[in-house]
Amino acid sequence: MKAKKAVSKIIINMVVWMISLVVLIPLVVILLNAFKDRAESNSMSLALPTKWMFENFAVVIERGKLAISFLNSLVYAASSATLIVIVVGAAAFTLARNRSKLNNIIYYFLIAGIAIPINHVALMEVMKFTSLMNTRVGIILIYAAINIPLSIFLGYGFVNTIPREIDEAAVIDGCTPLMLFVQIIIPLLKPILSTLFVLNFMAVWNDFIMPLYFLNNSAQWPMTLAVYNFFGAFENSWNLVSANIVLTLLPVFAVFILGQKYIVGGISAGAVKG
Amino acid sequence: MNTKKIYPTYFALGAVIIYFMLCFLPGVLGLFYSLTDWNAYSNQMNYVGFKNYIDVFKGSSQYRTFIWNTLVFTVVTTILKTTAGLGMALVLTNDRTWVRNFHRLVIFSPQVMSYLVVGLVFKSLLHPSAGFVNNFFKDIGMNFMTKSWLTDLNLAFGTVMTVDTWKGAGYIMVIIIAALQAISPTYYEAASIDGASYLDKFKYITLPLLKPILVSATVLNVTYGLRVFDMVYALTNGGPGNATGVINTAVYKEFSKGNYAMGTTLSSLLFAVVLALIYFIIKAMESKEVEI
Questions:
Q1: What pLDDT shows up at residue B288?
Q2: B218 to chain A: nearest residue by CA?
């Protein structure tokens, strides 16, 4: 009986390691490939590079215009995540507290967007009409718009966990609604607002479809679009392509490791409540 | 206390305006545009009734292939991700597994990468001559397994769905783990006393209690699958032929051709399908709610 248990333990662990390797190996191959010279990178393998080519990264940064696209991505992700945190914080607070008929309609109207697909072609027409087409402000507003529904849903659930008595005490002490929200409620909403910031930052950082439709000037491209075009242009220099992919992934993995708590917590909360 | 005064409705205005202008309005406008012959080459837009919709379904149109592919993609990836996610979640909450947190982190990590970059990673690895996958099979002497993974008509779609599962299963695993950890151990203890086997416990305790999370996971997977774009665009761009074309790659193709009316027609169809499916999934699952 004991032997049987030990065997099952070994099998279970072997299976788990296999799964982890299936996830890790592709990434390791790309990482190793990024350090190889062109000829060696033409047959990808898990072998270590014979000569470590650190200059690949310098070449990629220069030719792939990575510095500017990195800044673009940063601006888009940080601005839209900030905008979302502000408008969603305020909206979730008032919608969750005052359950009037109108507010309920607004709430369901907003969260319906979680599932509804975007009509990109018609969105282009709205963008043109509001002179937002091919502008940075336009793309930031689009990102805010498409990510508002899920953020409202998560924020609304969190506001419900804050006792109402706090508001009442504050109002009796002479708080105006704005003071109540800014000075009392925002500090209490900090955990959910951090989660929303990190989740939206990553969603925007990883998005590819919006700039593809709505930014035609390569100076405005975020990293995803830059890496895609680099891939097309350098398809036979696998070392450079790999180096570009590695540089694109680095910032997300950095955010992931730093914001792990918020990411995993946020997605679990969203799914469990949904 | 006057709730209206403390919680002014204008606080919601920012979110409502942005969402209305850039999400809701395009959806509604798109419905109207789908009834016209809107395109990039003429300034005039004429009402054509349901002609675009008829074109989608008439004869052996390529659009039907795209719709069919989208449905196949959705069903297959939903099943793969849910079963893989559930299996991994069970193994990684089992105390016979060592370094569980490490494995969880590794298997979840593709989730933080963009679909596009995952597509590019695998486009490199699956390259017929330079790619890692074919080189690996050659090195271990399994030459018959070297294939044109992304350009073979029979293989391409399967490859795309497998890569998508590689990326997405970890996410489903993490939410199922969260749900598993919320199940009180007393249920299992009581069942053990009654002599229940591992399988019995899984069937009568775990599965029923996981039902809500499995519903959520299914809704997530289905809405993702129907809207898939980046992964297909990066890996195959719909090719070879139309073998891997889905609705959203078709929308983009029509958009680049200046065929705006058809683009918005396909988007509107997708919208209708998503609404209907979500309604049915929620209805079907609701009626089978279990309580312990």
A1: 54
A2: A271
